[in-house]
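Weekly sync, protein design subgroup
Attendees: M.S., D.O., the rotation student, P.L. (late)

Item 1: inverse folding check
M.S. brought a backbone from last month's batch and wanted to see whether the design step gives back something sensible before we order anything. D.O. pointed out we never logged the input encoding, so this time it goes straight into the notes. Structure tokens as presented (129 positions):
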């Protein structure tokens, strides 16, 4: 059985996703893990370099901002992110911004966010008499 259509590309248009509004910031999905002395944050940022990101730490608040560039040409299917994003997280403990470390490798952003000295667990020795 054969199926003949007068518009062979009509089905392709159903797949097309309209480009999102460029002016609307999106949230960046992240994973956060806690260690004794720091938090480890991981986020996918495909195609971005270090200079494309703005990361700020104020007390226990972390903010990550960036922007994915507009793709050139007309795409048949457009699902890759376009436009700006912003993510703010309030972590359970104060952070030491001076010792924070960030790196991007293979499209993955990794942040090591040390806890402030006052927020780290301390062992207290019990003296006996």
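Designed sequence read out in the meeting:
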């Amino acid at each position: 059985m054969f199926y003949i259509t007068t518009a062979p590309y009509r089905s392709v248009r159903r797949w097309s996703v309209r480009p999102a509004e460029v002016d609307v910031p999106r949230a960046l999905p992240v994973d956060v893990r806690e260690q004794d002395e720091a938090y480890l944050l991981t986020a996918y940022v495909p195609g971005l370099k270090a200079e494309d990101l703005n990361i700020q730490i104020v007390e226990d608040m972390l903010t990550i901002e960036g922007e994915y560039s507009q793709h050139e040409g007309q795409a048949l299917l457009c699902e890759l992110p376009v436009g700006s994003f912003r993510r703010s997280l309030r972590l359970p403990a104060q952070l030491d911004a001076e010792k924070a470390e960030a790196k991007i490798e293979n499209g993955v952003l990794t942040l090591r966010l040390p806890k402030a000295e006052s927020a780290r667990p301390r062992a207290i020795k019990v003296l006996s008499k």
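Discussion: The helical segments are 10-15. The first strand starts at residue 30 and ends at 34.
Action: P.L. to compare against the previous round before Friday.
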